[in-house]
Design brief:
mainly alpha, 81% helix
Length: 160
């Protein structure tokens, strides 16, 4: 039941991210809250359950964005395994650690998106797009502790 609740909270964050935030930011600078959720999964869930949830969330993002099915599924699974690799080496209760790990995972996602976008979609990446990516990395990194607290709160409420 806890995993269903975690999926429901993730679904609400993804809809909020791509439905409401993209409306207010004109679709250009949407903070990737779903990425923070994937990092949270890498910190707090075992490999099988976290991987399944990251694939489902990636599929949901693919459906909402209308991208090639599997594009975000692959990227989010990569980010999950990256955060899973980093998690045993940091103290995940400190805000600074959450910010740095989220920044690293978001940077890995950006690099993977740039290379896959060039390879799959044959996109030319401009300096303006890289600048938007970097601003998005900073915003997501500083939002990560807040999202972690909200996810921990829902985790505690469900287990109580």
């Amino acid at each position: 039941m806890y995993y269903f609740t975690l999926f429901a909270v993730a679904y609400l964050f993804v809809v909020f991210q791509y439905g409401i935030l993209s409306y207010f930011t004109d679709g250009r600078l949407v903070p990737e809250i779903s990425l923070v959720i994937i990092v949270f999964l890498g910190f707090h869930l075992d490999t099988i359950r976290g991987c399944i949830l990251s694939v489902i969330i990636g599929f949901l993002v693919d459906c909402l964005l209308g991208t090639l099915t599997g594009f975000n599924m692959f990227i989010y699974t990569f980010v999950f395994f990256l955060s899973r690799l980093i998690a045993p080496h940091v103290y995940v209760e400190k805000r600074e650690a959450i910010i740095v790990v989220t920044l690293l995972c978001a940077f890995g996602k950006m690099v993977l998106e740039v290379f896959l976008g060039k390879w799959v979609y044959n996109l030319e990446i401009s300096g303006e797009l890289i600048g938007l990516y970097l601003v998005q990395l900073i915003i997501v990194s500083y939002l990560a502790p807040l999202v972690f607290e909200l996810l921990r709160y829902s985790q505690q409420k469900h287990r109580a």
